[in-house]
Amino acid sequence: MVMNYPGLPTTWGWIVAACVAAIVLWALTAPTPGTAGERHLAARWRLGRTPLVGKHLLRLTTRHWPLVVLRVIMVVLFLLIIAAGLFGSPIPQRNIATVFTWNIWWTGVIISVVLVGTVWCAVCPWDTLARWLVHHRLWRRPAPHTSLNLRVPRYLKNLWPALFLFIALTWLELGAGITVSPHATALLALFMIVLAVASQALFERSAFCRYFCPVGRTIGCYSQLAPVELRPIDRNTCERCETLDCYYGNEALPPCPTSLVMGRIQQNSYCISCGNCTQSCPQQNIDWQLRPPGVEAMRGSRPHWDEAWFMLGLLALTGFHGITMMPFWEKGISHLARMIGDSGQLLTSFSIGLAICMLAVIGLYALAVGATRFWTGAQLHYRHVFASLAFVCLPLAFAYHVAHNLNHLVRESAGISSVIANPFGTGTLPLCLAETSQRLNHLLIPQTMLHTIQASLIIVGFLLAVQILRHRLQRMAQPGRGHRTALLPMLLFAAVITGFHMWLLMQPMVMRM
Q1: Minimal CB count within 10 Å: which of 147, 193, 359, 393?
Q2: What is the number of other CB atoms lying within 10 angstroms of the CB of residue 127?
């Protein structure tokens, strides 16, 4: 029997609609961002100066052992998940491989971006295992010639490999159904290890982290919205630096794995918070800082073509996750399969549905960009405007991503204590109807609180998207052309996407586990 989660009440739909209308009205009537706004965006607060905890936080980033301990813990947990998936119960609700990976880890990783930016990448078990297997090191500089240290080919030095893998993982997750197969989940984890090890053995530094990892690149994109950053304390000190230990490393510590120079860093996207720069800097000139949320997407990040497509892919694929869990999705795919003669797992029909959903979002965005370029009167190439405005997609995707995954976390993790006690699911039986119903009605937090958080996320995501749009358009618009009129196409795009996301959250969602 298929069980459905109830969607948000209609009242929340009206509340979100009213907030969206108010934000649009504000965007169309408020003056363009001025000097005061720029000063606000430039504000920073060093966490190292925070009373009581500041010094302790700084020690955590300037010493290697805290990260090493966390990496070892993550590797042990990761190996447990692989073992449970390969040798444990095939019942997804009873096996820690599926419950932890799809309900807790993936949601937790995305939420962690708000609190700690890209810190997950610093303790990632894929990269830790790859470095240990190839270089036989957990943190020290590897010995020479432990890998081929080849330069990454130019055609791979972009985010297209990560986007392709992200689409492939979505296809496996939702089409092939690996989320309900502990064995398939373990095989996927092993596949990611193989990719990380092969990349570490072939290429210089951590090419897997910078170019290939779909999880790391998702975190990197979302971290441009994060209220934390790892930056120089005094950029003048970096300008005077002659050794560039943050980039080259030193005798004890390896170089920056993603080839960043701390004195020139402008965005979080490729920083994996590994601690190499904070530990190797001879001037101790690097610290964690607080900043206004979304400031990087508003003015700090440069538009790149491949990054724009990855952000647009994030927006399309997060919405697609929601569509596939609607009761009407299975009926629609079955109808399409009968029309084209598809059989078996209906993977061809699923692939067509995935392509249609992605093309719909891309087409709508492309039209909005074209209209914006026309109304701004900017003498900019369409490709440049396309890339620059793609940052508007980030808060829309992030807000729905977290709101949707909270459903899985709060509703499907109700039996997590029994899974922790018996991670392999030894001797367990499938969920009976009574237990399924109990999990459906006994959430980790009250349902009213869940609905409030979800609706609030959608509102905040739209507000951030509008703020990003206003700041980016201010730099594009030609003097004398109507700035407010130029806002309309992308405002409409953001409002349509927000309305669609809210509509998805208001529908009953099919229970995955």
Answers
A1: 359
A2: 25
Q: Is 406 exposed, middle or buried (0-12, 13-18, 19+ CB in 10 A)?
A: buried
Which 3 state secondary structure label does DSSP give 510?
strand
Q: With contact defined as beta carbons under 8 Å apart, do 81 and 186 qualify? A: yes
C-alpha closest to that of 225 among 50, 464, 401 = 464
> Mind listing the pLDDT tens digit for each residue in 326-377?
888 988 998 999 999 887 778 999 999 999 999 999 999 999 999 998 887 7
| pLDDT tier at 478, thresholds 50, 70, 90 | low
Cα-to-chain-centroid distance, residue 467 = 20
Cβ(491)–Cβ(22) below 8 Å:
no
Per the listing, tokens 């980016």 go with 472
Taking a C-beta distance cutoff of 8 angstroms, is the pair 8, 451 a contact?
A: yes
Phi (first) and psi of residue 232, to 5 degrees: -65, 145
Distance of alpha carbon 44 from alpha carbon 290, whole angstroms: 6
Burial class (CB in 10 A: 0-12, 13-18, 19+), 452: middle
Grouping H, G, I as helix, E, B as strand and the rest as coil, residue 261 is coil
* pLDDT(38) > 70: no
Residue 89 backbone dihedrals phi, psi, to 5 degrees: -65, 140
Q: Are 472 and 391 in contact (CB under 8 A)?
A: yes
Region 404-430: mean pLDDT is: 87
Mean pLDDT of the chain, nearest integer: 89
Q: Give the residues across from 287 on adjacent strands.
A: 231
Check: pTM over 0.85? Answer yes or no.
yes
Is the CB of residue 308 less than 8 Å from the CB of residue 158? no
* Amino acid sitting at position 407: N
Helical H segments across 275-346, by residue range = 276-280, 295, 305-324, 327-340
Per-residue pLDDT tens for 171-212? 999 988 899 999 999 999 999 999 999 999 999 999 999 999
Distances from the Cα of 212 to the Cα of 198, 270, 363, 377, angstroms? 11, 12, 26, 37
Calpha distance 453→249 (Å, rounded): 43
User: Residue 117 carries which DSSP code?
Assistant: T
Q: Kind of pairing, strands 509-510 and 4-5?
A: antiparallel
| CA distances to 84, 90, 95, 377 from 181, in Å | 11, 7, 9, 53
